[in-house]
Amino acid sequence: MGTNPKINVEVTLSERICTSVAVALIIATFISALHTYLHVPAQVPIHFDLNNKPDRWGSSLTIFLLPLVSLILFIPIYLIGKKPHLHNYPIAVTESNAKQLYQLSRLLVAVMNAEIALTFAVITLEIGVFMAGETFGMWPVVVCIALVIATPIVFIMQMRRKG
Q1: Which helix (H) or strand (E) holds 32?
Q2: Which run of H or E residues covers position 44?
Q3: In this predicted structure, what is the pLDDT of residue 163?
Q4: Residue 132, C-beta contacts closer than 8 angstroms, at least 6 positions apart
Q5: Measured between alpha carbons, how far apart are the two ends of the chain, in Å?
Q6: What sections of the protein cross the membrane (predicted)?
Q7: 79 FRET partner, CA 20 to 30 A, in 2, 9, 116, 143?
Q8: What is the distance between the alpha carbons of residues 43 and 104, in angstroms, rounded to a whole number?
């Protein structure tokens, strides 16, 4: 760590869009949590089994934990994205490939931040929908988790091709 070239890399439009989407999702998650909080009893489901049945209940205030965790995760991930020379890479970083690798790495971090925010938004929304007597099922959460797992793989493959 610290041996990669330290160069200035411009923020791309894609990175800005992903960061904006992440911020919007975090705000929407807080709004969804507030809406749920105002319309539910004192006890809400805080954990679901694989059949999407609640297996743990807690105070309705716990609905705010998900957006809070989403925000707490967003901040350091966002800041880490600003220092691509400190990131780990699957290939050697040189002066000739640094700009491309750094742009990919910054975009990876921004996409991951948006996907993490989306995952927390979907879970928060599902709790509110469940409390209203409906459900999306587990598929939206499974898809979000699959995205969070697949995204780094795709970006690592792109980085290897750039090298």
Answers
A1: helix 13-38
A2: strand 43-48
A3: 66
A4: 39
A5: 18
A6: 21-40, 60-80, 107-132, 138-157
A7: 143
A8: 44
HSE (side-chain half, CA atoms, 13 Å) at 120: 28
Read off the DSSP letter of residue 1.
-
Amino acid of residue 75: I
Structure tokens at 162: 């750039």
Answer for the pair 32, 93: CB distance below 8 angstroms, yes or no: no
Report d(CA 7, CA 62) in Å as an integer: 43
How is the chain split into domains, by residue range?
13-162
Residue type, 110: A
Mean pLDDT by 10 residues, the chain (163 residues): 83 97 97 90 79 82 93 97 94 92 96 96 87 81 93 94 76
